[in-house]
Q: What sequence folds into this?
């Protein structure tokens, strides 16, 4: 969300009557090591009348990506991560102190609802522990700046976060939404994503398999595009619903190839919507991405039982 551009998309989202909004990174463009500047930029978001009205009406949970963490494409080397985390939590947790004040990074999880209608929200931190990216070699045909890191020790999450995630995946839940700021599945763009860390990505898929965690859906953003990707080599179809940006439409590059893409993507301003119809014996899951006027850009539905090992 670009802080200095109109944010009328909040009104379109509110009309969907969401029970929860997940703000999954690049929530502001902080891009600074000066925490006064960071605070001022969050304040600009708070002062936006459309956001302010939305925030009163809809609960929000958040994690971060590079720009609100503090630096474009940054990982663990960003020197102000602890200070920036404090500003982030002060803004999003407003005095309610969750357990993430007590560990490094902003990863967090909650289970909403109960029994066979429970939804687990897992917010990953893909910044605080991430080792540096590998710049693309000359002659590589990827559109972006980076190529996969062949080093087995290169990190996306770090050991503590992996241990926590394993524990979370072993908890019972009917549906699990895992929010990763950067895309999990798409791999041919050369920008940031789990594709930059192939061993970490395989570890993620393997963890879902070894914990027998049912009901996983990934959501991601960052790319200034929306698309739905599907990974068919896991224990069941793993979807990655990417929605971005909210008011930062970019037309370049016009398209990139993604063999995992289901249907079409779009570069128009957009937001994602996950809707579950619990009234059926096998609940129906509906994944959407909507444009800023509420028009459908992506729509895919399936029974929840499809997401079972
Ligand atoms: Fe980003």
A:
């Amino acid at each position: 969300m670009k802080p200095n551009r109109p944010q009328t998309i909040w009104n379109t989202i509110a009309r969907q009557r969401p029970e929860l909004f997940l703000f999954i990174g690049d929530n502001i463009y902080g891009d600074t090591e000066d925490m006064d500047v960071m605070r001022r930029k969050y304040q600009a978001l708070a002062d936006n009348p459309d956001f302010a009205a939305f925030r009163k009406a809809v609960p929000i949970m958040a994690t971060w990506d590079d720009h609100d963490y503090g630096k474009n494409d940054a990982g663990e080397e960003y020197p102000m991560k602890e200070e920036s985390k404090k500003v982030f939590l002060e803004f999003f947790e407003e005095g309610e102190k969750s357990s993430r004040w007590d560990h490094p990074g902003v990863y967090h999880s909650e289970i909403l609802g109960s029994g066979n209608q429970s939804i687990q929200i897992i917010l990953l931190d893909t910044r605080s522990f991430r080792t540096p990216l590998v710049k693309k070699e000359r002659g590589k045909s990827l559109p972006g700046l980076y190529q996969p890191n062949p080093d087995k020790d290169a990190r996306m999450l770090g050991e503590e976060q992996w241990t926590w995630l394993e524990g979370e995946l072993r908890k019972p839940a009917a549906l699990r939404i895992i929010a990763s700021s950067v895309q999990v599945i798409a791999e041919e763009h050369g920008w940031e994503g789990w594709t930059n860390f192939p061993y970490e990505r395989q570890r993620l898929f393997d963890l879902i398999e070894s914990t027998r965690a049912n009901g996983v859906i990934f959501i991601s953003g960052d790319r200034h595009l929306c698309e739905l990707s599907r990974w068919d080599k896991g224990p069941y179809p793993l979807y990655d619903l990417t929605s971005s940006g909210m008011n930062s439409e970019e037309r370049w590059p016009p398209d990139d190839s993604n063999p995992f893409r289901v249907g079409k993507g779009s570069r128009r301003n957009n937001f994602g919507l996950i809707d579950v119809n619990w009234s059926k014996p096998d609940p129906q899951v509906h994944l959407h991405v909507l444009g800023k006027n509420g028009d459908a850009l992506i729509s895919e539905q399936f029974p929840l039982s499809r997401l079972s090992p």
